Amino acid sequence: MVTSIRAAIFAGLCLFASTLWADDNLPVKKLTLAGPAAGVSNALIHLVASGGLNDIAEEAEFVLWSNPDQLRALTLSGKADFLAAPTNVAANLYNRGVPLKLINVSQWGVLWMISRDADKRTLADFKGEEIAIPFRADMPDIVFTHLAEKQGINLKKDFKLRYSATPVDAMQLLITRRIDHALLAEPAVSMALRKTQSFPVSIIAPELHRSVDLQQEWGRLMASEARIPQAGITVLGEAANNPQLVSAFEAAYARANQWCIEHAEECGKEVAAQIKLLMPEAVADALTTQNNHYATAADARPELEAFYQILLERQPASVGGKLPDEGFYFLPVE
Known about the structure:
The chain is built from 13 helices and 11 strands. The strands form 3 sheets. A 6-stranded mixed sheet has the order 2-1-3-10-4-11, sandwiched between helices. The chain has a 3-stranded antiparallel sheet with strand order 8-5-9, with helices on both faces. By secondary structure, it is of the alpha/beta class. Strand 1, helix 2 and strand 2 form a beta-alpha-beta unit. Helix 5 (139-150) crosses helix 9 (214-222), helix 8 packs across helix 12 (280-289) and helix 11 (264-274) packs across helix 12.
């Protein structure tokens, strides 16, 4: 049954892509790039805005996905060629039979505790407090739980956790003063600080403060680099069978990603023009505070597998019940 479903999905993707691809010939007719309202999409948006894919595609477009249902629809319908997604979601889809490959990990440090209390510096400082957390049993929640328990914190006894459907919902709880602390990912962190005039410098006392950097906590408690392989770019369907195209795209994305880092304000304007939910200043703020490590999927594999193993132990469904095999990792053309 699983094999037949996988075959059907692949056949559908190939049928859609067959009008666009001609083996390894470049440029192709059209590329559709899809991503969420998050930093992993910045370089995708810049590639479209700047014509950065002109050498490999006659036309390129960016499509925003806002929730898991839209993400699944894009992967199953074949309406995206390159898709930005959390790394655990990419593994989950692959393990469920979706024909995709992970080509890079560009987001390694975007999780923060945000608080009204400037004195809170560790997770233990939040004992007895209510904390908003988006996406129950998904990556941010699992990371938070793992780091808390590594410090001997009992989540049921020590915290009152308030789960929200999305990071934007958690951000709104903070902004409207219905809660004092939240676990957020960029750019929601910078959006909350900007909307309350808490960042970069407020003339009056800031309402909100960056508190615990979960990446630093990860490095300290896991005795590893202070970074978490959180999100990257996948290639879908027939496009994955065109290594010349994927290698060219990955190189273009890496250049665009570096451009965004070096031109944060300009990148922020491009992103906000495409994603109306975001403020250009907040996108720029996020770029200046995030961990800017970048790695191809092949180079990131050891850290990814260590991360996936933790997710497997805590929430097996989050990665599709097993480690993805070597076919998940794209190997660039030399």
